[in-house]
Design a protein that fits this description.
single chain; alpha+beta; 1 helix; elongated
């Protein structure tokens, strides 16, 4: 029974360590309060995104 307790304690400790680490690496999208927002893509390039009903609907390269 001690072994099960130690395993659960180690797993709980890993969860306490990994959850904040994963949350800090999560990509935070901006609030879609307007119709169009400008963001940075995965490689740092600018992208333009259209918002519909408060959520990102589609994104594309900016330009004419």
């Amino acid at each position: 029974m001690k072994t099960v307790g130690w395993i659960l304690a180690i797993l709980f400790g890993l969860a306490l360590f990994l959850v904040p680490l994963m949350a800090s690496r999560a990509h935070h999208w901006p609030d879609c309060k307007g119709g169009v927002v400008m963001l940075r893509g995965a490689h740092g390039e600018p992208i333009e995104c259209v918002c519909a009903e408060g959520a990102l609907a589609t994104c594309f390269n900016p330009g004419p």
